[in-house]
């Protein structure tokens, strides 16, 4: 039997759900702000510090190219770090809330052997 809308509202107002949202916000907001500032710095340097960005480091590789490539690197690092963070902090809280709403309906013999996939 599926959970009722009232049950979902009750869970939404619960301390556990509030903790889940706080944990997620405490990661997402600072990370997003840091990335936007880092990107804005790159754009501003490209627009207003052309001489600085044109400094050659090795051969034809200049600071602008290195900082541009670091934009990609930082994107992948943030994605990797978020996946680790979510697996360690977010997913266990979300699983607890889900199990509280739906209950563990899997048969006892498959609950521990299938990795949670039916």
Task: For the structure shown, list the relevant keywords.
two-stranded antiparallel ribbon; 2 strands; 5 helices; single chain; elongated; 118 residues; mainly alpha
Percent of sequence in beta strands: under 5%
Helix content: over 70%
Helix and strand content put the structural class at mainly alpha
The overall pLDDT average reads 87
Count of DSSP strands = 2
Query: Termini distance?
Result: 18 Å
Order of helices and strands: HHHEEHH
Report the radius of gyration as a whole number of Å: 23 Å
Widest β-sheet, arrangement of strands: 1-2
For the sheet with most strands, the description reads:
2 strands, antiparallel
Task: Provide a count of the helices.
Answer: 5
Detailed description of the structure:
- The protein is elongated and about 65 Å long.
- The chain has a two-stranded antiparallel ribbon with strand order 1-2.
- Strand 1 and strand 2 form a beta hairpin.
- It has one domain (5-102).
- The protein has five helices and two strands; from the N terminus they run H-H-H-E-E-H-H.
- By secondary structure, it is mostly helical.
- Pfam families: DUF485.
Summed up, what is this model?
With 118 residues, the chain is mainly α. Helices cover 76% and strands 4% of the residues.
List the helices and strands and how they pair.
Elements: H1 5-12, H2 15-48, H3 50-53, E1 56-58, E2 61-62, H4 63-102, H5 108-111
Antiparallel strand pairs: 1-2
Keywords: Membrane, Transmembrane, Transmembrane helix
Transmembrane segments: 27-49, 61-82
Pfam family, one: DUF485
């Amino acid at each position: 039997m599926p959970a009722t809308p009232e049950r979902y509202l009750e869970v939404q107002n619960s301390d556990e759900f509030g903790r889940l949202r706080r944990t997620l916000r405490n990661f997402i907001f600072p990370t997003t702000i840091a990335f936007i500032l880092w990107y804005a710095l790159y754009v501003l340097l490209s627009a207003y510090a052309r001489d600085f960005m044109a400094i050659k480091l090795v051969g034809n590789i200049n600071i602008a190219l290195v900082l541009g490539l670091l934009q990609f690197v930082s994107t992948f690092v943030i994605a990797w770090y978020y996946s680790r963070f979510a697996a360690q902090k977010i997913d266990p809280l979300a699983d607890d809330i889900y199990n509280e709403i739906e209950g563990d309906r899997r048969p006892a013999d498959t609950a521990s052997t299938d990795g949670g996939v039916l």
